[in-house]
């Protein structure tokens, strides 16, 4: 009988020792490099996620890109985005992603350079003319519902010479008269309409129409000459373009702002080289909107910006927006560059969703 040697069983453990030796314990390959690689990738993703949104915002804002009605709404909040970008840069630094850090810092610097000057007064606040002082007040009446007595009281306290009114309804005209506005500002030109489309100019000095109202989308922006004694001809526009609340409203918003007169524009035959223009009211736009910056480039100065009050919010003060909307600066007074700005204030008006704005201006002689 032939005997066949049996085949030894195959080793089942991961590490077989030398022949005849007992098998050694199994070993696990360390996963530390994999973990480190995952953490590095996560840090990179987080760094770019923190940097790129601010960079995109800076490009759109500084490039004056027309990105549609949604951007027209969002760009109003640029001051808040600029503040947040200053927090994002240190966060990216902590992640030690240098390319992302460079982008984050560049975005923060760009946005800061666009926003911070508004909090710094111009120093002289303009030229030093010897002409008369004119105090301009604005009031958005929220479809005529704001307190007429509150308007009259603020006119009295501010010693306003000119009042530019928006959302002026026929009923509001009557209530303002009953509250005594005519005794303080006896001259007026009004374009009263139901709803939000009316406007008007009241003044201490004689007033006459300077041309047809600027009217897009049912929002009338009344133009008037105010005959200030010992001063050049003064044209005041009660500004209120439609709000870019929907895609179909953006065209009338842009048209209403672009149609505002520029310093030196030929117009009424009474225009002269010395004509002073004042744009006052609810612009439905901030200094971050391209149409307003175009007005500044054309030769206007913003009274709030000139006095270091350019970040003072004026809306919302009332209504459902108050609970979740950060304040933005929609109401303003613009004047020719040769008009000195002596003072700027905002005031709350009972029953209104916008703050009143006030500017003390000194005209050239």
Describe what you observe in this structure.
The chain has 365 residues and is an alpha+beta fold. It has 2 domains: 38-118, no CATH class; 124-362, Endonuclease/exonuclease/phosphatase (Deoxyribonuclease I, Chain A). It has helices spanning 32-62, 69-74, 78-95, 98-115, 148-158, 170-178, 181-184, 250-258, 290-297, 303-306, and strands at 133-140, 162-166, 187-191, 199-203, 207-209, 214-216, 219-221, 223-226, 234-239, 276-282, 300-302, 331-336, 340-347, 356-362. Strands 3-4-2-1-14-13 form a 6-stranded mixed beta sheet. It has a 6-stranded mixed beta sheet with strand order 5-8-9-10-12-11. It has a two-stranded antiparallel ribbon with strand order 6-7. A hairpin with a 7-residue loop joins strand 3 and strand 4 (199-203). The longest helix has 31 residues, at 32-62. One of its GO terms (molecular function) is endonuclease activity. Residues 1-36 are annotated as: Disordered. This is Endonuclease/exonuclease/phosphatase family protein.
């Amino acid at each position: 009988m032939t005997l066949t040697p049996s085949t030894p069983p195959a080793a089942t453990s991961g590490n077989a020792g030398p022949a005849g030796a007992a098998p050694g314990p199994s070993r696990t390959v360390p996963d530390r490099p994999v973990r480190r690689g995952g953490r590095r990738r996560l840090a990179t993703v987080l760094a770019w996620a923190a940097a790129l949104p601010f960079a995109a915002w800076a490009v759109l804002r500084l490039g004056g890109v027309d990105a549609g009605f949604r951007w027209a709404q969002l760009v109003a909040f640029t001051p808040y985005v600029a503040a947040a970008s200053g927090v994002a840069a240190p966060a990216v630094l902590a992640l030690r992603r240098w390319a992302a850090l460079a982008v984050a810092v560049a975005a923060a610097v760009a946005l800061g350079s666009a926003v911070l000057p508004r909090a710094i007064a111009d120093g002289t606040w303009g030229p030093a003319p010897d002409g008369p002082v004119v105090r301009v007040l604005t009031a958005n009446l929220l479809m005529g519902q704001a307190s007429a007595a509150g308007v009259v009281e603020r006119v009295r306290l501010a010693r306003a010479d000119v009042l530019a009114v928006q959302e002026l309804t026929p009923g509001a005209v009557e209530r303002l008269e009953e509250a005594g506005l005519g005794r303080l500002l006896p001259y007026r030109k009004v374009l009263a309409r139901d709803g939000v489309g009316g406007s008007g100019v009241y003044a201490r000095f004689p007033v006459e129409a300077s041309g047809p109202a600027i009217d897009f989308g049912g929002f009338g922006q009344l133009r008037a000459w105010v005959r200030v004694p010992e001063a050049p001809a003064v044209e005041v526009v009660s500004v209120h373009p439609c709000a870019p609340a929907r895609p179909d409203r953006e065209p009338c918003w842009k048209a209403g702002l672009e149609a505002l007169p520029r310093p030196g524009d030929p117009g009424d035959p009474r225009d002269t080289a010395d004509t002073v223009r004042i744009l006052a009211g609810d612009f439905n736009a901030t200094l971050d909107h391209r149409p307003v910056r175009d007005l500044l480039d054309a030769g206007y100065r913003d009274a709030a910006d000139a006095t270091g009050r350019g970040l003072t919010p004026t809306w919302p003060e009332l209504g459902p927006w108050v609970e979740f909307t950060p304040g933005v600066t929609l109401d303003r007074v613009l004047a020719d560059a040769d008009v000195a700005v002596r003072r700027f204030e905002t005031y709350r008006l009972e029953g209104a969703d916008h703050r009143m704005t006030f500017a003390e201006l000194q005209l050239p002689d």
